[in-house]
Design goal:
Shape: globular
Radius of gyration: 17 Å
CATH topology: Rossmann fold
Number of domains: 1
CATH class: Alpha Beta
CATH architecture: 3-Layer(aba) Sandwich
Helix content: 40-55%
Bound molecules: nicotinamide-adenine-dinucleotide
Largest sheet: 7 strands, parallel
Strand content: 5-15%
Strand order of the largest sheet: 3-2-1-4-5-6-7
Length: about 260
């Protein structure tokens, strides 16, 4: 149920990258429900149009931009367009991420580079643009998506490898913490959310395939269930809202106890 003017981020302008699917879509919808004007970006035009439709359906404002946020020029254009439309940006959620590099002894250099680029270059480029503006305004919230994989995830490590992803998501923690320290004197907070195994349309089948194994996701999660996108969206909403005024530089695990 959209709360509009009485919502927890009412009157804020929020950018969510990777909003065409999965957690990014859930985060965008949740921030919108709580009163934020949304700017959503993704490389997937079709999925982005669906997120845009879902937000519009609730009568809330949304600006959708198809953009590759691992490239400098589209990121600059994206932020310029949002500032032209709204005059300010309050919240940045760096959701774009993912990628596979396989077992360490077989990993290809191009896969390693791709994973770093997708998870880190995107967060760097968007955060740089956002902080240039937020620093002047002396206000703003940045929320990055890390992962339980930042410390190695048993089912992923044992059965698929993917050390590049673990390294990138650990780097998100360090990046977040450093940005938080740099931006503290300007009243801008930066935090990360580290999801455990969260079921989305895209990964449902791969999680199911792992469940029968000794260290399957549910068995290795103390709360004994996969997370839902809403679990992550609620955590991001909290960190983006005024309720989290005194929290910065932290990575919040939303991982069922892992
Ligand atoms: N789902 C999980 O279990 C889980 C667990 C831990 C961390 N995470 C992290 O949460 C975030 C979202 O995960 P998800 O499962 O929803 O992923 P997803 O793959 O479903 O969504 C990622 C979105 O990013 C978009 N994207 C990819 N490359 C892009 C680019 N260059 N420019 C712009 N958009 C691009 C994709 O089109 C997609 O819509 C990621 O950072 C992921 O690493 C997810």
């Amino acid at each position: 149920m959209a709360k509009g003017a009485s919502g927890r981020v009412a009157g804020k302008v929020a950018i969510v990258t990777g909003a065409a699917a999965g957690l990014g879509r859930a985060i965008a919808l949740r921030l919108s429900e709580e009163g934020a004007a949304l700017a959503i970006a993704d490389i997937d035009a079709k999925g982005l149009a669906e997120t845009e439709r879902l937000i519009r359906q609730s009568g809330r404002p949304v600006q959708a931009t198809v953009a590759d946020v691992t490239e400098e020029a589209p990121v600059k254009d994206l932020f310029a367009a949002i500032l032209a439309a709204h005059g300010h940006i309050d919240i940045l959620v760096n959701d774009v991420g993912g990628g596979l590099s396989g077992r360490i002894w077989e990993a290809k250099v191009e896969d390693w580079d791709f994973v770093m680029r997708l998870n880190l270059r995107s967060a760097f480029l968007c955060t740089r643009e956002a902080t240039r503006h937020m620093r002047e305004r002396r206000a703003g919230r940045i929320v990055n998506l890390s992962s339980g994989s930042r410390e190695g995830t048993p089912w992923m490590a044992y059965y698929t490898g993917n050390s590049a992803y673990a390294a990138a998501k650990a780097a998100i923690h360090g990046f977040t913490r450093n940005v938080a320290l740099e931006m503290a004197e300007y009243g801008v907070t930066a935090n990360a959310v580290a999801p455990g195994p969260i079921e989305t349309e895209k990964n449902r089948e791969s999680f199911q395939a792992l469940e029968g194994l000794e260290y399957g996701p549910t068995r290795a999660t103390p709360l004994r269930r996969l997370g839902m996108p809403a679990d992550i969206a609620n955590a991001v909403l909290y960190l983006a809202s005024d309720e989290a005024n005194y929290i910065t530089g932290t990575t919040l695990a939303v991982a069922g106890g892992r």
